[in-house]
Amino acid sequence: MPDRGARLLEVQYANLAHQGETAELGIWAFLINETIFFGALIFTYYFYRLTYPHDFALAARDTVLWCGSVNLAILVTSSLTMVLGINAAAQGERTKMIRWLVATCALGFAFMLVKGYEYYLDFQDQVVPAVNYVAKSGEGPAGELFWVFYWVATGLHAIHLMTGVGLVLYMLLWRIRRGEITPVYYTPLEVVGVYWSFVDVVWLFLFPSIYLVGRS
Amino acid sequence: MTIEVDPRRARPFPFVVAWALLLLLFGVSLWTAFLGLGLWAPVIQFGIAAIQVATVFILFMRLKGPPSLKWLFAVSGFFWLLFLYGLTMTDYSNRKGWPPAVPVSSSQQVHPPGS
Question: Please, where are the H alpha helices in chain A?
Fold first, then answer.
């Protein structure tokens, strides 16, 4: 029977280190696409914000600042728990690894819970374009454009976060349970961690763009 | 069998410090929103976000360390993004009336931007 290391090694690689480095480069190549994807979106937002500063400032004042702030703290903390989980995997501390990863998942769900409540408040505030949008006093049509960006950007981010939660659950319920994450080879977990932190990075840019406009 | 732990994965301390720094910078960013800094506010807030992102990239996403080819991948993403921004802005900055000299509401603007 082949040993565990040999079982994890795919045929096209010389050894596990080679396989791991290729996987790491693979996730970074994927993140180039994601950078351009979210970069173009944020750039479009700033283009229109420069064009219609008055309307954007007025519209952005209705965003729920405390929800965005709590979610930023949740995401940053989840990046820490994720990395501590990977550290535990590297050190061969299985129980600790599972605990940190469960905490990461819980924080991901907490983010979605706060986001869901924020969407509910937004709906109540009548700021959903094409559904119930009502412009505020003194606000021009471009105010609605801000909210289009808000829903598209936060929606896309939420989809990415749910994908991240799914990947962590896959690690917990499949790869770790089958004994495929070991101190010798934990790259799959490392790759999921890189993706998770990238989702955090996107929020770090979205937060000042959406929530801090027109506050003073 | 003794496990040889990657030194970057041996101690939680640098990550906990980075986490505290990220939250501190978040607090500063939030504070600047209420200072009435005008056009400087988004510049400062985006600058703070850039520091936060660099911290996450280098430590949490383990950009620091082998394989060093990761740097090339990460930088190329930003390079293509700058290329995209550069080409787009070359076009728009040469269009008449953009950005508007006086901040206006879209209800007062007769022509759409760039027309």
Answer: 4-8, 16-51, 53-60, 65-90, 94-124, 142-170, 187-211
Per-residue pLDDT reduced to its tens digit, A69-79:
999 999 999 99
What CATH code is assigned to A26-211? 1.20.120.80
For residue A203, give the amino acid letter. Answer: W
A159-207 pLDDT per residue, tens: 999 999 999 999 999 999 999 999 999 999 999 999 999 999 999 999 9
Smallest CA-to-CA distance from A161 within A211, A115, A102 is with A115
What are the structural domain ranges in chain A? 26-211
- The answer to whether residue B7 neighbours chain A at the CB level (below 8 Å) is no
**Chain A, window 114-143: residues with a beta carbon less than 8 angstroms from a chain B beta carbon:** 138-143
B23/A86 Cα distance (integer angstroms): 21
Cα–Cα distance measured from residue A214 to residue A153, given in angstroms and rounded to the nearest whole number: 19
Nearest CA in chain B to A84: B12
Please give the ipTM for the structure prediction.
Answer: 0.91
Please count the structural domains in chain B.
1
Q: Per-10-residue mean pLDDT for chain B, 115 residues long?
A: 68 94 97 90 93 95 84 91 93 82 61 51
Asked, for residue B105, whether it belongs to a domain, the answer is no
**CA nearest to A35, candidates B83, B112, B21:** B83
- Judge whether B86 lies within some domain: yes
**DSSP assignment letter at A141:** T
* Helix residue ranges, H only, chain B: 13-32, 40-55, 69-92
Q: Which of A47, A194, A212 sits opposite B33 (nearest CB)?
A: A212
